[in-house]
Amino acid sequence: MAGHEFPEPADRKRPTAETAADPLALEENRPSCDPAFRHGVVVGFDGSTTSERALSYAVGLALRAASALIIVHVANRLPTTVWAGCEPPVFVDVPDHRTEVLGLELACADFLSEVPWVLVERGGDICHELEEVGKEYEADAIVVGTTHGVVGRIFGSVSGRLARRAQRPVIVIP
């Protein structure tokens, strides 16, 4: 809402000048993830045909590397501006029940039974969120499908933007 700020929880630790020099203090600030999924393969999945191909490839890659699979679904966020005061755009989370549906589909998929996997839901920019999940889990690679169509040509494809900015290998599946 316009003019309202939500204070951060008092128990959230923020890096300071003292903790920036201490690597153990930085580890405490990092979001915790299950150690079984550390150094796994991150794959972007939205249920489309290209994301299903990317998921199939990621399963094979995880099996060959004897690692786990981190399946990421990034929920939609719509930009909206506050009418009174013409403030800068604010992002509002739109309820996305698609993650629940995708989770049920994945739970019933036979080809995922051979590899440990987890479904992670995020909201925001797809490229940024895939890279953040990759960073949190210290992923060995990020696998995404290509974007076809006019939208990808106008705004740039997710796979292209991710390949340019990621700090880890990105595998793009056609």
Task: Write the SSE topology.
Elements: H1 17-21, H2 23-29, E1 41-44, H3 49-65, E2 69-75, E3 77-80, E4 90-93, H4 98-107, E5 117-123, H5 126-136, E6 141-145, H6 150-155, H7 158-165, E7 170-173
Parallel strand pairs: 1-2, 1-6, 2-5, 6-7
Antiparallel strand pairs: 3-4
Helix pairs in contact: 5-7
Task: Describe the overall structure.
With 174 residues, the protein is an alpha/beta fold. It is 37% helix and 20% strand. It has seven helices and seven strands; from the N terminus they run H-H-E-H-E-E-E-H-E-H-E-H-H-E. The protein has helices at residues 17-21, 23-29, 49-65, 98-107, 126-136, 150-155, 158-165, and strands at residues 41-44, 69-75, 77-80, 90-93, 117-123, 141-145, 170-173. The longest helix is centred in the N-terminal third of the chain and has 17 residues, at 49-65. The radius of gyration is 18 Å and the shape is globular. The termini are far apart. The relative contact order is 0.18. The model is unreliable at 1-17, 23-28 and 80-84 (pLDDT under 50).
Summary tags:
174 residues, alpha/beta, 5-stranded parallel sheet, 7 helices, 7 strands, globular
Poorly predicted spans: 1-17, 23-28, 80-84
Distance between the termini: 41 Å
> What is the N-to-C succession of helices and strands?
HHEHEEEHEHEHHE
Label the overall shape.
Answer: globular
Major sheet characteristics: 5 strands, parallel
The overall pLDDT average reads: 76
Query: How many strands appear in the DSSP assignment?
Result: 7
In spatial order, strands of the major sheet run 5-2-1-6-7
Write down the Rg.
Answer: 18 Å
Q: Please work out how many helical segments DSSP would assign.
A: 7
Strand content: 15-25%
Fraction of helical residues = 25-40%
Overall structural class, as computed from helix and strand content, comes to alpha/beta
